[in-house]
Predict the structure.
Amino acid sequence: GAAAGRIAGIVLGLCVACGLAVWAYSMTAWRKKTFIGPLLRFADRSVKYYVGGGMTAKVKILLGFYQICTVLSSTYSARLPDKYTSWTDNLANAISIDWSGFFLPEQCLGYGMRLLAVALSPVALIALLMGTGIALRLYYWRTASPRPKLWAEAALGLLDLTPAGLVLIFCFVPSISASIFRSWSCQAYTISPPNEPLQQVSYMRLDASVECGSDDHESITDVAVGFIVLWPVGSLVLFTSLLAACYKPLQAKSPNALTRATAFLHREYEKTWYWWEAVELARKLVLTGFVLLIPEERAFLRLVVATLVCSCYAVALAAVRPYKRVGDDVLAVATSLVLLLFFLGANWTTIFLGIEERYQGADPADVLGFSSLTGLVNSMIALVGAVLIFFLIGAIFAARRVAKLPTFRLVSTKQLPELTLAHGLKWHLFNSHIWST
Protein backbone atom coordinates (compact mmCIF):
# COMPACT_ATOMS: atom_id res chain seq x y z
CA GLY A 1 0.00 0.00 0.00
CA ALA A 2 2.81 2.40 0.85
CA ALA A 3 4.61 1.61 -2.41
CA ALA A 4 1.41 2.17 -4.40
CA GLY A 5 0.92 5.49 -2.61
CA ARG A 6 4.43 6.58 -3.51
CA ILE A 7 3.92 5.62 -7.15
CA ALA A 8 0.64 7.56 -7.25
CA GLY A 9 2.35 10.55 -5.61
CA ILE A 10 5.18 10.60 -8.13
CA VAL A 11 2.78 10.24 -11.07
CA LEU A 12 0.60 13.07 -9.76
CA GLY A 13 3.67 15.22 -9.10
CA LEU A 14 4.92 14.69 -12.66
CA CYS A 15 1.53 15.65 -14.08
CA VAL A 16 1.40 18.81 -11.98
CA ALA A 17 4.98 19.75 -12.89
CA CYS A 18 4.32 19.24 -16.61
CA GLY A 19 1.10 21.24 -16.37
CA LEU A 20 2.87 24.13 -14.66
CA ALA A 21 5.64 24.07 -17.28
CA VAL A 22 3.13 24.22 -20.12
CA TRP A 23 1.21 27.00 -18.41
CA ALA A 24 4.40 29.04 -17.87
CA TYR A 25 5.47 28.52 -21.49
CA SER A 26 2.09 29.80 -22.71
CA MET A 27 2.51 33.12 -20.86
CA THR A 28 3.73 35.40 -23.65
CA ALA A 29 4.18 38.41 -21.38
CA TRP A 30 6.64 36.51 -19.18
CA ARG A 31 9.26 36.59 -21.96
CA LYS A 32 10.20 40.07 -20.71
CA LYS A 33 10.60 39.03 -17.07
CA THR A 34 14.06 39.27 -15.53
CA PHE A 35 14.41 35.74 -14.18
CA ILE A 36 12.09 33.47 -16.11
CA GLY A 37 12.27 35.41 -19.38
CA PRO A 38 15.68 34.03 -20.54
CA LEU A 39 14.51 30.47 -19.88
CA LEU A 40 11.33 30.97 -21.90
CA ARG A 41 13.22 32.62 -24.77
CA PHE A 42 15.70 29.75 -24.76
CA ALA A 43 12.75 27.34 -24.89
CA ASP A 44 11.36 29.28 -27.87
CA ARG A 45 14.65 28.95 -29.75
CA SER A 46 14.91 25.26 -28.87
CA VAL A 47 11.40 24.57 -30.14
CA LYS A 48 12.17 26.50 -33.34
CA TYR A 49 15.29 24.45 -34.06
CA TYR A 50 13.55 21.21 -33.03
CA VAL A 51 10.64 21.79 -35.40
CA GLY A 52 12.78 23.23 -38.18
CA GLY A 53 15.15 20.26 -38.07
CA GLY A 54 12.32 17.71 -38.05
CA MET A 55 13.75 16.20 -34.88
CA THR A 56 10.62 14.25 -33.91
CA ALA A 57 11.15 11.65 -36.63
CA LYS A 58 14.86 11.36 -35.83
CA VAL A 59 14.22 10.93 -32.10
CA LYS A 60 11.61 8.25 -32.80
CA ILE A 61 13.97 6.35 -35.11
CA LEU A 62 16.87 6.47 -32.65
CA LEU A 63 14.69 5.59 -29.67
CA GLY A 64 13.22 2.60 -31.50
CA PHE A 65 16.75 1.49 -32.41
CA TYR A 66 17.85 1.73 -28.78
CA GLN A 67 14.75 -0.07 -27.47
CA ILE A 68 15.63 -3.09 -29.61
CA CYS A 69 19.36 -3.01 -28.88
CA THR A 70 18.82 -3.14 -25.12
CA VAL A 71 17.11 -6.56 -25.26
CA LEU A 72 19.89 -8.35 -27.14
CA SER A 73 21.24 -9.97 -23.99
CA SER A 74 17.97 -10.54 -22.10
CA THR A 75 15.78 -11.67 -25.01
CA TYR A 76 18.26 -13.32 -27.36
CA SER A 77 20.82 -14.56 -24.79
CA ALA A 78 23.54 -12.79 -26.76
CA ARG A 79 26.79 -12.92 -24.81
CA LEU A 80 29.48 -10.30 -25.35
CA PRO A 81 32.50 -9.31 -23.25
CA ASP A 82 31.56 -7.04 -20.34
CA LYS A 83 33.63 -4.14 -21.67
CA TYR A 84 31.20 -3.86 -24.59
CA THR A 85 27.93 -4.21 -22.69
CA SER A 86 28.45 -2.80 -19.19
CA TRP A 87 27.58 0.81 -20.07
CA THR A 88 24.53 -0.14 -22.17
CA ASP A 89 23.23 -2.41 -19.38
CA ASN A 90 23.61 0.39 -16.84
CA LEU A 91 21.81 2.83 -19.13
CA ALA A 92 19.00 0.34 -19.79
CA ASN A 93 18.55 -0.24 -16.04
CA ALA A 94 18.53 3.51 -15.39
CA ILE A 95 15.62 4.18 -17.76
CA SER A 96 13.76 0.92 -17.14
CA ILE A 97 10.00 1.15 -16.69
CA ASP A 98 10.19 -1.30 -13.76
CA TRP A 99 9.70 1.19 -10.93
CA SER A 100 8.76 -1.43 -8.35
CA GLY A 101 12.35 -1.98 -7.23
CA PHE A 102 12.66 1.72 -6.43
CA PHE A 103 10.07 1.44 -3.68
CA LEU A 104 10.65 -2.09 -2.41
CA PRO A 105 13.54 -4.54 -2.92
CA GLU A 106 12.90 -7.11 -5.62
CA GLN A 107 13.09 -9.84 -2.96
CA CYS A 108 9.95 -8.39 -1.35
CA LEU A 109 7.89 -8.58 -4.53
CA GLY A 110 7.33 -11.66 -6.65
CA TYR A 111 7.45 -11.31 -10.40
CA GLY A 112 3.66 -11.37 -10.58
CA MET A 113 3.39 -8.25 -8.41
CA ARG A 114 6.23 -6.52 -10.28
CA LEU A 115 4.49 -7.30 -13.56
CA LEU A 116 1.29 -5.71 -12.27
CA ALA A 117 3.19 -2.56 -11.28
CA VAL A 118 5.03 -2.41 -14.62
CA ALA A 119 1.94 -2.93 -16.78
CA LEU A 120 -0.64 -0.90 -14.84
CA SER A 121 1.31 2.19 -13.75
CA PRO A 122 1.53 3.63 -17.31
CA VAL A 123 -2.17 2.87 -17.79
CA ALA A 124 -2.95 4.92 -14.70
CA LEU A 125 -0.78 7.77 -15.95
CA ILE A 126 -2.41 7.81 -19.39
CA ALA A 127 -5.89 7.59 -17.85
CA LEU A 128 -5.03 10.52 -15.57
CA LEU A 129 -3.94 12.57 -18.58
CA MET A 130 -7.10 11.80 -20.52
CA GLY A 131 -9.26 12.57 -17.48
CA THR A 132 -7.46 15.88 -16.99
CA GLY A 133 -8.16 16.88 -20.58
CA ILE A 134 -11.85 16.07 -20.23
CA ALA A 135 -12.09 17.85 -16.86
CA LEU A 136 -10.52 21.04 -18.25
CA ARG A 137 -12.89 21.08 -21.21
CA LEU A 138 -15.92 20.56 -18.99
CA TYR A 139 -14.72 23.28 -16.62
CA TYR A 140 -14.74 25.86 -19.41
CA TRP A 141 -17.94 24.34 -20.84
CA ARG A 142 -19.83 25.43 -17.71
CA THR A 143 -19.19 29.11 -18.44
CA ALA A 144 -19.56 28.92 -22.23
CA SER A 145 -22.47 30.66 -23.91
CA PRO A 146 -24.08 29.09 -25.80
CA ARG A 147 -23.07 25.72 -24.46
CA PRO A 148 -22.04 23.08 -27.04
CA LYS A 149 -23.11 19.49 -26.63
CA LEU A 150 -21.64 17.87 -23.53
CA TRP A 151 -20.44 14.70 -25.28
CA ALA A 152 -18.79 16.70 -28.07
CA GLU A 153 -16.91 18.83 -25.54
CA ALA A 154 -15.81 15.72 -23.64
CA ALA A 155 -14.54 14.18 -26.89
CA LEU A 156 -12.51 17.31 -27.62
CA GLY A 157 -11.09 17.15 -24.10
CA LEU A 158 -10.03 13.59 -24.79
CA LEU A 159 -8.32 14.69 -28.00
CA ASP A 160 -6.54 17.60 -26.28
CA LEU A 161 -4.14 15.30 -24.44
CA THR A 162 -4.18 12.43 -26.92
CA PRO A 163 -0.76 13.51 -28.30
CA ALA A 164 0.80 13.13 -24.84
CA GLY A 165 -0.88 9.74 -24.40
CA LEU A 166 0.44 8.52 -27.76
CA VAL A 167 3.97 9.62 -26.84
CA LEU A 168 3.75 7.66 -23.58
CA ILE A 169 2.49 4.55 -25.36
CA PHE A 170 5.26 4.85 -27.94
CA CYS A 171 7.90 5.07 -25.20
CA PHE A 172 6.49 2.40 -22.88
CA VAL A 173 5.11 -0.37 -25.07
CA PRO A 174 8.38 -2.09 -26.15
CA SER A 175 9.83 -2.37 -22.64
CA ILE A 176 6.49 -3.33 -21.06
CA SER A 177 5.88 -5.94 -23.76
CA ALA A 178 9.32 -7.41 -23.14
CA SER A 179 8.55 -7.64 -19.41
CA ILE A 180 5.24 -9.37 -20.15
CA PHE A 181 6.75 -11.96 -22.49
CA ARG A 182 9.58 -12.69 -20.03
CA SER A 183 6.96 -14.50 -17.96
CA TRP A 184 7.74 -17.47 -20.24
CA SER A 185 11.52 -17.04 -20.03
CA CYS A 186 12.98 -19.93 -17.99
CA GLN A 187 16.44 -21.21 -17.21
CA ALA A 188 17.01 -24.97 -17.11
CA TYR A 189 19.31 -26.56 -14.52
CA THR A 190 20.61 -30.13 -14.61
CA ILE A 191 19.84 -32.07 -11.41
CA SER A 192 20.80 -35.60 -12.48
CA PRO A 193 24.22 -37.01 -11.47
CA PRO A 194 26.83 -37.67 -14.17
CA ASN A 195 26.43 -40.80 -16.30
CA GLU A 196 22.71 -41.01 -15.50
CA PRO A 197 19.65 -40.08 -17.56
CA LEU A 198 19.42 -36.31 -17.95
CA GLN A 199 16.97 -34.61 -15.61
CA GLN A 200 16.44 -30.89 -15.56
CA VAL A 201 14.35 -28.39 -13.64
CA SER A 202 13.52 -24.90 -14.92
CA TYR A 203 13.03 -21.67 -13.00
CA MET A 204 12.04 -18.22 -14.14
CA ARG A 205 14.99 -16.07 -15.12
CA LEU A 206 13.60 -13.01 -13.36
CA ASP A 207 12.27 -14.82 -10.27
CA ALA A 208 14.28 -17.90 -9.36
CA SER A 209 11.81 -18.79 -6.61
CA VAL A 210 9.18 -19.77 -9.21
CA GLU A 211 9.53 -23.14 -10.92
CA CYS A 212 8.38 -23.12 -14.51
CA GLY A 213 5.28 -25.25 -15.04
CA SER A 214 4.19 -24.99 -11.41
CA ASP A 215 0.91 -23.51 -10.22
CA ASP A 216 2.66 -20.26 -9.25
CA HIS A 217 4.15 -19.97 -12.73
CA GLU A 218 0.81 -20.67 -14.40
CA SER A 219 -0.82 -17.88 -12.37
CA ILE A 220 1.87 -15.48 -13.62
CA THR A 221 1.45 -16.55 -17.25
CA ASP A 222 -2.34 -16.22 -16.96
CA VAL A 223 -1.89 -12.59 -15.90
CA ALA A 224 0.66 -12.10 -18.68
CA VAL A 225 -1.84 -13.32 -21.30
CA GLY A 226 -4.25 -10.59 -20.21
CA PHE A 227 -1.51 -7.98 -20.40
CA ILE A 228 -0.57 -9.17 -23.91
CA VAL A 229 -4.09 -8.23 -24.97
CA LEU A 230 -3.77 -4.88 -23.17
CA TRP A 231 -0.30 -3.77 -24.31
CA PRO A 232 1.23 -5.44 -27.40
CA VAL A 233 -2.03 -6.32 -29.14
CA GLY A 234 -3.97 -3.37 -27.73
CA SER A 235 -1.40 -0.75 -28.72
CA LEU A 236 -1.12 -2.15 -32.24
CA VAL A 237 -4.91 -2.19 -32.62
CA LEU A 238 -5.11 1.36 -31.24
CA PHE A 239 -2.47 2.73 -33.62
CA THR A 240 -4.02 0.94 -36.60
CA SER A 241 -7.56 2.10 -35.75
CA LEU A 242 -6.53 5.73 -35.30
CA LEU A 243 -4.59 5.74 -38.57
CA ALA A 244 -7.48 4.08 -40.41
CA ALA A 245 -9.84 6.76 -39.08
CA CYS A 246 -7.47 9.44 -40.44
CA TYR A 247 -7.39 8.00 -43.96
CA LYS A 248 -10.03 10.17 -45.65
CA PRO A 249 -9.03 13.52 -44.05
CA LEU A 250 -5.36 12.95 -44.84
CA GLN A 251 -5.99 11.90 -48.43
CA ALA A 252 -8.29 14.90 -48.95
CA LYS A 253 -5.78 17.21 -47.19
CA SER A 254 -8.58 18.39 -44.91
CA PRO A 255 -7.27 18.07 -41.35
CA ASN A 256 -9.72 17.75 -38.50
CA ALA A 257 -9.45 17.43 -34.73
CA LEU A 258 -8.55 13.73 -34.94
CA THR A 259 -5.75 14.14 -37.49
CA ARG A 260 -4.25 16.99 -35.45
CA ALA A 261 -4.45 14.98 -32.23
CA THR A 262 -2.81 11.93 -33.84
CA ALA A 263 -0.18 13.86 -35.81
CA PHE A 264 2.52 12.11 -33.77
CA LEU A 265 1.69 8.92 -35.69
CA HIS A 266 1.64 10.22 -39.27
CA ARG A 267 3.12 13.71 -39.52
CA GLU A 268 6.64 12.58 -40.56
CA TYR A 269 5.48 10.22 -43.31
CA GLU A 270 4.48 10.71 -46.92
CA LYS A 271 0.76 10.74 -47.55
CA THR A 272 0.94 7.36 -49.30
CA TRP A 273 2.73 5.77 -46.33
CA TYR A 274 0.95 7.58 -43.50
CA TRP A 275 0.25 4.20 -41.83
CA TRP A 276 3.94 3.24 -41.55
CA GLU A 277 4.02 3.87 -37.78
CA ALA A 278 1.86 0.78 -37.26
CA VAL A 279 4.41 -1.28 -39.25
CA GLU A 280 7.23 0.13 -37.15
CA LEU A 281 5.38 -0.73 -33.94
CA ALA A 282 4.74 -4.29 -35.17
CA ARG A 283 8.46 -4.68 -35.90
CA LYS A 284 9.45 -3.53 -32.42
CA LEU A 285 6.88 -5.78 -30.76
CA VAL A 286 8.13 -8.82 -32.68
CA LEU A 287 11.79 -8.11 -31.92
CA THR A 288 11.35 -7.20 -28.25
CA GLY A 289 8.47 -9.43 -27.19
CA PHE A 290 6.86 -12.03 -29.42
CA VAL A 291 10.15 -13.84 -30.12
CA LEU A 292 10.18 -14.83 -26.44
CA LEU A 293 7.35 -17.25 -27.23
CA ILE A 294 10.04 -19.39 -28.91
CA PRO A 295 11.25 -21.84 -26.21
CA GLU A 296 14.52 -21.08 -24.45
CA GLU A 297 16.14 -24.28 -25.71
CA ARG A 298 15.69 -22.87 -29.22
CA ALA A 299 17.09 -19.44 -28.40
CA PHE A 300 19.21 -19.45 -31.56
CA LEU A 301 15.97 -19.59 -33.58
CA ARG A 302 15.06 -16.23 -32.04
CA LEU A 303 18.21 -14.74 -33.56
CA VAL A 304 17.35 -16.27 -36.93
CA VAL A 305 13.83 -14.81 -36.84
CA ALA A 306 15.15 -11.39 -35.76
CA THR A 307 17.74 -11.42 -38.54
CA LEU A 308 15.09 -12.19 -41.16
CA VAL A 309 12.76 -9.48 -39.81
CA CYS A 310 15.55 -6.88 -39.85
CA SER A 311 16.59 -7.88 -43.38
CA CYS A 312 13.05 -7.58 -44.76
CA TYR A 313 12.41 -4.31 -42.94
CA ALA A 314 15.65 -2.71 -44.16
CA VAL A 315 14.84 -3.68 -47.76
CA ALA A 316 11.28 -2.34 -47.40
CA LEU A 317 12.53 0.96 -45.99
CA ALA A 318 15.02 1.41 -48.81
CA ALA A 319 12.36 0.57 -51.41
CA VAL A 320 9.41 2.69 -50.24
CA ARG A 321 11.22 5.58 -48.44
CA PRO A 322 8.17 6.46 -46.31
CA TYR A 323 9.49 9.65 -44.66
CA LYS A 324 9.00 13.15 -46.03
CA ARG A 325 12.61 14.14 -45.36
CA VAL A 326 15.45 12.47 -47.19
CA GLY A 327 17.58 12.60 -44.04
CA ASP A 328 14.98 10.64 -42.09
CA ASP A 329 14.88 7.93 -44.78
CA VAL A 330 18.67 7.67 -44.69
CA LEU A 331 18.73 7.52 -40.88
CA ALA A 332 16.00 4.85 -40.77
CA VAL A 333 17.78 2.65 -43.33
CA ALA A 334 21.13 3.15 -41.57
CA THR A 335 19.80 2.17 -38.15
CA SER A 336 18.02 -0.84 -39.65
CA LEU A 337 21.23 -2.04 -41.30
CA VAL A 338 23.22 -1.49 -38.10
CA LEU A 339 20.61 -3.46 -36.19
CA LEU A 340 20.87 -6.22 -38.80
CA LEU A 341 24.64 -6.27 -38.29
CA PHE A 342 24.12 -6.49 -34.52
CA PHE A 343 21.94 -9.55 -34.93
CA LEU A 344 24.38 -11.11 -37.37
CA GLY A 345 27.14 -10.47 -34.83
CA ALA A 346 24.99 -12.07 -32.12
CA ASN A 347 24.54 -15.09 -34.40
CA TRP A 348 28.29 -15.42 -34.87
CA THR A 349 29.15 -14.96 -31.19
CA THR A 350 26.54 -17.57 -30.25
CA ILE A 351 28.03 -20.02 -32.73
CA PHE A 352 31.56 -19.19 -31.50
CA LEU A 353 30.69 -19.80 -27.86
CA GLY A 354 28.67 -22.90 -28.73
CA ILE A 355 31.67 -24.46 -30.47
CA GLU A 356 33.92 -23.64 -27.51
CA GLU A 357 31.52 -24.98 -24.88
CA ARG A 358 30.04 -28.05 -26.55
CA TYR A 359 32.93 -29.44 -28.58
CA GLN A 360 36.02 -29.93 -26.46
CA GLY A 361 39.21 -29.40 -28.41
CA ALA A 362 37.44 -27.79 -31.37
CA ASP A 363 38.78 -24.49 -32.65
CA PRO A 364 36.11 -21.90 -33.64
CA ALA A 365 38.64 -20.41 -36.05
CA ASP A 366 38.17 -23.46 -38.28
CA VAL A 367 34.53 -22.47 -38.81
CA LEU A 368 34.38 -18.68 -38.36
CA GLY A 369 37.95 -17.64 -39.04
CA PHE A 370 38.34 -15.88 -35.67
CA SER A 371 40.45 -17.31 -32.87
CA SER A 372 39.00 -15.09 -30.11
CA LEU A 373 35.63 -13.60 -29.28
CA THR A 374 37.18 -10.15 -28.88
CA GLY A 375 38.51 -10.22 -32.43
CA LEU A 376 35.08 -11.19 -33.75
CA VAL A 377 33.36 -8.37 -31.84
CA ASN A 378 35.97 -5.80 -32.89
CA SER A 379 35.48 -6.76 -36.52
CA MET A 380 31.73 -6.25 -36.20
CA ILE A 381 32.26 -2.86 -34.56
CA ALA A 382 34.56 -1.83 -37.43
CA LEU A 383 31.95 -2.98 -39.97
CA VAL A 384 29.21 -1.02 -38.19
CA GLY A 385 31.42 2.08 -38.16
CA ALA A 386 32.09 1.73 -41.89
CA VAL A 387 28.36 1.44 -42.61
CA LEU A 388 27.61 4.57 -40.56
CA ILE A 389 30.33 6.57 -42.34
CA PHE A 390 29.03 5.40 -45.72
CA PHE A 391 25.47 6.47 -44.90
CA LEU A 392 26.65 9.79 -43.43
CA ILE A 393 28.41 10.63 -46.69
CA GLY A 394 25.36 9.54 -48.65
CA ALA A 395 23.07 11.67 -46.48
CA ILE A 396 25.23 14.75 -47.04
CA PHE A 397 25.21 14.32 -50.83
CA ALA A 398 21.46 13.60 -50.86
CA ALA A 399 20.71 16.68 -48.76
CA ARG A 400 22.82 18.89 -51.06
CA ARG A 401 21.11 17.51 -54.15
CA VAL A 402 17.63 18.08 -52.73
CA ALA A 403 18.53 21.60 -51.57
CA LYS A 404 19.43 22.60 -55.15
CA LEU A 405 16.03 21.64 -56.56
CA PRO A 406 14.03 24.75 -57.65
CA THR A 407 11.07 24.39 -55.29
CA PHE A 408 9.14 26.59 -52.88
CA ARG A 409 10.17 25.91 -49.28
CA LEU A 410 9.16 27.29 -45.90
CA VAL A 411 11.77 29.40 -44.17
CA SER A 412 10.97 27.81 -40.79
CA THR A 413 11.43 24.14 -41.79
CA LYS A 414 13.25 24.29 -45.17
CA GLN A 415 10.62 21.82 -46.41
CA LEU A 416 7.85 21.94 -48.99
CA PRO A 417 4.70 23.63 -47.62
CA GLU A 418 1.86 21.28 -46.74
CA LEU A 419 -1.22 22.75 -48.39
CA THR A 420 -4.40 21.83 -46.56
CA LEU A 421 -7.99 22.76 -47.29
CA ALA A 422 -10.44 23.85 -44.64
CA HIS A 423 -13.94 22.40 -44.67
CA GLY A 424 -15.94 23.75 -47.61
CA LEU A 425 -12.94 25.13 -49.56
CA LYS A 426 -11.63 23.78 -52.87
CA TRP A 427 -8.82 26.08 -54.07
CA HIS A 428 -5.57 27.70 -52.95
CA LEU A 429 -4.33 31.10 -54.09
CA PHE A 430 -0.62 31.80 -54.52
CA ASN A 431 0.06 35.52 -54.90
CA SER A 432 3.65 36.39 -55.82
CA HIS A 433 5.00 39.93 -56.24
CA ILE A 434 8.47 41.36 -56.85
CA TRP A 435 8.75 44.82 -55.34
CA SER A 436 11.49 45.92 -57.75
CA THR A 437 9.04 45.81 -60.67
Summary: The first strand starts at residue 186 and ends at 190. The two ends are 77 Å apart (CA to CA). The chain has a mean pLDDT of 81. The beta strands are 186-190, 200-204.
